Amino acid sequence: MNKKNKYSVTDHLITRVTAWIAGAIVLVLAGWGIISLWELYHFEETNDAQVQEYINPVISRAGGFIVAVKFEENQDMKKGDTLLVIDNREYVIQQAQTEAALLNARSQLTVLESNVETLTEISEVNRAQIAAAEAKVVKQQLDYARYQKLYEVESATKQQLENVQALKDVADADLLSANKNYRASLSKIKDTQAQQIVINAEIKRLSALLDRHKLDVSYTVITAPYNCRMGRRNVEKGQMIDAGQVLAYIVDQETDKWVVANYKETQIGGMQIGEAAEIEADAYPGKKFKGVIISLSPATGSSFSLLPPDNSTGNYVKIVQRVPVRIRLTGDRKEVDLLKAGMNVNVSISKQRS
């Protein structure tokens, strides 16, 4: 009889404990359900979201051998810090050759300018000779006319008339020669000036080429374009690289980070630019980050895919599409820096009720 009573008490105790446990579970589930329904009613949530920031490749603009690598992976770098140094001897030689050619062209231009001045003076002398020749021609014409009259009245011999005529012909020839010399000197000036134009064009070409060589020399030292953190490194000292080759990756630390949250098309109806968002990263459970909507994609994610779906090609199955929503992370920079590009996060945005 006592044994039966003992079992009855034990069963009653187990039943009571089980009932309390079941009740607690029911209460927890009920509370969780109420909280979930409340959040579902007041917030639009998604776990299809990742942290994004600008990750840019470091690309060489000159080829050659790497002589120095000044960074390590994951190292913080300031704007202007040297990342890589390429052997620049070939580029320096090309620059020196162009500088020599440019100096030669400028010297030729100086010589041509001097020639123009000399030829201009010669042309002035020739023009003066024309005036003298013209005066001589006038004198000989007068002498010839006078002797011709004397010859007609037999006061001069024919030989004297012929001598005067010969002197007149010589004066005419001298005038013709002076005119030709003057025109020739003017032509030489024009030819020299044309050569100046050619040399000036060559100087411009060589100056542009020299600027290009100077750029090539500057390209042999690759510096950080902004404050950044180095990512993956693809190069080592002594390696031969080509222009356009990706050498490393850098993460921009001067711009804000953002989250791309891919919401269902049925969730974005009330979302507005400037609306606050709450972010929780899988890496930091329980820690809340703040953000603000800065843009909504003009199209669904599938529309930007390599092969966008075409529902008119066959059997149609309706699938809820996702629309990328861009959310800028706000708050303290140190806290925001805890989030890395590519991290998965959960995003909650308050529903807008009219």
Automatic annotation (TrEMBL):
Recorded hits in SUPFAM superfamilies, A to Z, give: HlyD-like secretion proteins
Location of the protein in the cell: Membrane
Against Pfam families, the record matches this protein to: Beta-barrel_RND_2 (PF25954), BSH_RND (PF25917)
Q: Which InterPro entries match?
A: Beta-barrel_RND_2, MdtA-like_BSH, MFP
- For this protein, the parts annotated as crossing the membrane are 20-41
Q: How does it sit in the membrane?
A: Single-pass membrane protein
Chain ranges of the Multidrug resistance protein MdtA-like barrel-sandwich hybrid domain: 58-253
Q: Which UniProt keywords apply?
A: Membrane, Transmembrane, Transmembrane helix
Q: Which residues form the CusB-like beta-barrel domain?
A: 258-299
Q: What is this protein called?
A: HlyD family secretion protein
> Per the UniProt entry, what species is this protein from, by scientific name?
Mucilaginibacter aquariorum
